Amino acid sequence: MEEQHLQARLIALLRQDKIQLWLEPYRSLRDPADRLKIQELAEKYASVIQFPVEEVTSALESIRTDTSQKDEGNKEFKQTAVATLVLHLPKEEGETKIKKVKFKTKLDITTQELKTQISQEFGFTYFDLILCGKILSAERRLDEQKVKNNSKIMVMKTAPLDEKAEMKKEEEKTRRQDEELQKTHRGFQILSERDGSEDPSTTPFLEIADQKGNPLQIPDEERKALILAMGFHERGRALMKKRDHSAALSYLLRANEQFKKCNSAILHTVDNYAVLQLDVVWCYQALEQMECLDDAQERLEEAERCFQKCYGEKQSRLQQIKGHTGGEEVLFLRLHLLQTVLMFVKGNENQALDKLRDVEHLYSQLNLDPQKLQQLQDKGFSEQEARLGLRACRGDVSEAENLISQRKKEKQVLKLKEQDKRRRRLQDINTLVELGFERRDAQRALHQARGDVDKAYGMLLDAADAQHQVNLNQLLSMGFQKDMADSALRMMRDDVQQATQLLLENQAVIPADLQSPSPPSSSSEEPSTSSESTGGSSRQDEDLLVNELLEDIPKHEEDYLDLTLDEEKKLIEKIRAALEKKN
């Protein structure tokens, strides 16, 4: 971080003085007189920015080398179409600095081809390539994914390989990680396709709600994308809690892809998207990869915009909805802290110092008194409930106790209302099934009718009549008489194949004793029983998968606000030490 800060400060001074290190007398340092020029420049700038001369000299050498190579690379790219990429390699154990290397390649190749080249050059086996916060797709060409000459690309290992003896073990680990990712996608896909009409006592169901817990009406496709996005996000957050920021980042970036499929108005109704942007940048800084990802600033700006639209000016909308705003302050602490890091990295030392003072002031307000936490825990509340309650009430124990109790009552009321709503919905579906409709068709119709069972019944009748007419026309085209074809279809529950077989077996004339207004009980029950038994194990497997994934979903809806602030404290101290070192 300090190295980036120093280079940013020097680049600003060089631009101010209109000095171009890639030109003479700085381009070649073979001549002692030229080396003296760099030394004089280093001494001059060291006194301005208060850095040791040796560090400034080293940084100027690095800038000169980079700019010279970039200039040569630009010429080469124009002549040969061979691009120079700046790869930020993962730190190995014991290393303190990120290794940046130049890598030459054509841009009309696929990401997989580039990965093969990198693997051959550096020995990495399992890794992702990330450009501007997006994982490059293996099958697509580099130029199609906006990879350009001089692009900075992060190489993120997904499974380290140290020795041959560890290869099988690591390969198995990577395979499990891939399977876990696919399983997560499948599980939340299942949840996204459920509409809450199943038995609430046995079947998990996710619903999109506002800050108060009230369900939001969202088009089906966007609802599915949102649930997938939030599923990936929660899995990423679970890994962040374990400090596995590299694995977490993969899930968070996939969550971002799903969020992008949603209407922007929806993203500004709930704060999930803004929190995701913070989490992505938090992983960048934890992995010390902030300087190679140009979208860190953009993500923080997007988070700030989302918070403003979601919470309102000065959090007025949030105050109106929840009655308090203290709990969300931890999000702004992270936002402003990450903004401070970016300011420092970019060389804006004075801005970073001013911002850090605001961050430290906010941290002191949010850092809770352990005795107050214990007071609430002694009254039977969990540590999480106590922390969230105190922050929401800005440290007032009595108000926090009342708020936690009130929240529990509200949650219980919402839970009972939801259970009652789902039971009534299940009852309506069973009614439609008893009237002869397939369960899946009944669920779909009731969903489209927004719970109006009479309207759903009408829709199902219209659909059944339309399908019956299509099937009847098919039989008539085969030469069967209309009344016989109609009777056969009704007897066989509109199954064209079975109706055809019945007509053929009876020489196209259905005997009167076989005709009845409804099919025999055995034929009506058998398919249903068979269908249920066939799909039973499949449904059971789905529920097992879903229940396993739901373990990552926090029990408390405000878990994302429950930060201990330990990580924040360490980062604040790190920036403070770096800034004080310069003064």
Model description:
This protein is mostly helical. It folds into 3 domains: 1-74, no CATH class; 81-162, Ubiquitin-like (UB roll), CATH 3.10.20.90; 176-407 and 556-581, Serine Threonine Protein Phosphatase 5, Tetratricopeptide repeat, CATH 1.25.40. It has 22 helices and 5 strands. It has helices at 2-16, 32-49, 53-80, 111-122, 167-193, 220-241, 245-259, 264-267, 272-286, 295-311, 316-322, 329-345, 349-366, 370-378, 383-392, 397-434, 439-448, 453-477, 482-491, 496-505, 521-549, 566-581; strands at residues 82-89, 99-106, 126-131, 134-135, 152-159. The chain has a 5-stranded mixed β-sheet with strand order 2-1-5-3-4. α5 (167-193) packs antiparallel against α6 (220-241). The radius of gyration is 32 Å and the shape is flat. The two termini are 17 Å apart.
Relative strand content? 5-15%
**Overall pLDDT confidence:** 80
CATH architecture of the largest domain: Alpha Horseshoe
Class computed from helices, strands and strand pairing? mainly alpha
The termini sit apart by: 17 Å
Radius of gyration: 32 Å
What percent of residues adopt helix (DSSP H or I)?
A: 55-70%
Number of helices: 22
Number of domains: 3
Compact summary:
This protein has helices at 2-16, 32-49, 53-80, 111-122, 167-193, 220-241, 245-259, 264-267, 272-286, 295-311, 316-322, 329-345, 349-366, 370-378, 383-392, 397-434, 439-448, 453-477, 482-491, 496-505, 521-549, 566-581, and strands at 82-89, 99-106, 126-131, 134-135, 152-159. With 583 residues, the protein is mainly α. A hairpin with a 2-residue loop joins strand 3 (126-131) and strand 4 (134-135).
